[in-house]
Amino acid sequence: MKKIKYIKALFFFVILIFTGCQENEYSFGEIVTPSNIQITAEIVGADAANPNGDGSGVVNFSATADQAVSFKYVFDGTEIVALSGKTSISFSKLGLNKYTVTVVASGTAGLTASKSIQVEVLSTYSPPNDLTAKLFGFDPASPNAVTSRTWKIQSSKPGHFGLGPVGGSTPVEWYGAGPNEKATVGMYDDRFVFSSDGTFQHITNGDVFGRDPHIVNDLGANTDGTVDGADILNYAYPDYTGSYTLTAPGGIETISLSGNGFIGYYTGGNHKYEIFDRGTPNEMVLRTTDADASFDWWFIIVLE
């Protein structure tokens, strides 16, 4: 009897080992390289009399492709991530210039395909001296000197960070942070350095503050930041250097940051910051629209 029980137990044990060693089969779906890339470019202000635009240098791009999950635009060493395929690029080199813009479409498993388009754009905007003097310390007496200035979020001022409707004219209409309200989220220790040579440096001190999912979609998976509703606090991110341009589409002075550059709080979008107000000494009020075109986000920055 004991022998029969032993045989049964041994048989059951063998079955457990056999079933436990079976490999799980996973299906990742069909892996296909994106194809049929289509690109359109709308030069702002272009018409029969002004085929190269209104002089703002702004071009709105739209790209589509079969089997694509995201897109990025590459030009003059700059990359702009555009998950939807739509983005706006400001070309600031004065005069009439031809640019080659490459769209890289990404599919499943990281497979990519690309296509290029050429645009000939007119840019006539030259930022005024009072703006460049404020932003990076330009001195008309030494126009070729390389200068820079460092900015930070004006954390002690009410409404230094907030949101409102897209296109609204009232800063932080729907929400405005109180003095030092965001002291522990990775925002106030950031520094933003603008230089006269067109470089932009973001000193993050190791972490930043951003909106989920835009920050994860564009900058990578969240490793140790704290998820708080639609925010990610103290998202790990190193210092980086990019470039910026100053334009004035529609007469609105605008700072356009290259790649995924941002100020204060990562919102995705086109990485353009309209200068809403620069009348206060050593301060500027900026706004940008997020990637969903759901909100305008407002920031007050101050010279360090």
Secondary structure layout plus pairing:
Blueprint: H1 2-20, E1 35-43, E2 58-66, E3 70-75, E4 78-81, E5 86-90, E6 95-106, E7 112-123, H2 129-136, E8 148-153, E9 161-164, E10 175-176, E11 191-195, E12 199-203, E13 207-211, H3 214-219, E14 226-228, E15 231-236, E16 240-247, E17 254-257, E18 272-277, E19 283-289, E20 296-303
Antiparallel strand pairs: 1-2, 2-5, 3-4, 3-6, 6-7, 8-11, 8-20, 9-10, 9-20, 11-12, 12-16, 13-15, 14-15, 16-17, 17-18, 18-19, 19-20
Q: What is the average per-residue confidence, as pLDDT, rounded to a whole number?
A: 90
- What level of helicity do the residues show? 10-25%
How many H/I helices?
Answer: 3
Give, in order, the helices and strands.
HEEEEEEEHEEEEEEHEEEEEEE
Spatial arrangement of strands, main beta sheet: 8-11-12-16-17-18-19-20
Kindly state the number of beta strands. 20
Please summarize the sheet with the most strands. Answer: 8 strands, antiparallel, barrel
Outline the low-pLDDT stretches.
Answer: 1-26
State the separation between the terminal residues, measured CA to CA.
87 Å
Shape: globular
Strand content: 35-45%
Write down the Rg: 25 Å
Query: Helix- and strand-based class?
Result: mainly beta
Task: Kindly give the count of domains.
Answer: 2
Please give a structural write-up:
With 304 residues, the chain is mainly β. It has 2 domains: 36-123, Sandwich (Immunoglobulin-like), CATH 2.60.40.10; 129-303, no CATH class. It has 3 helices and 20 strands. Strand 6 and strand 7 form a beta hairpin. It comes from Polaribacter aquimarinus.
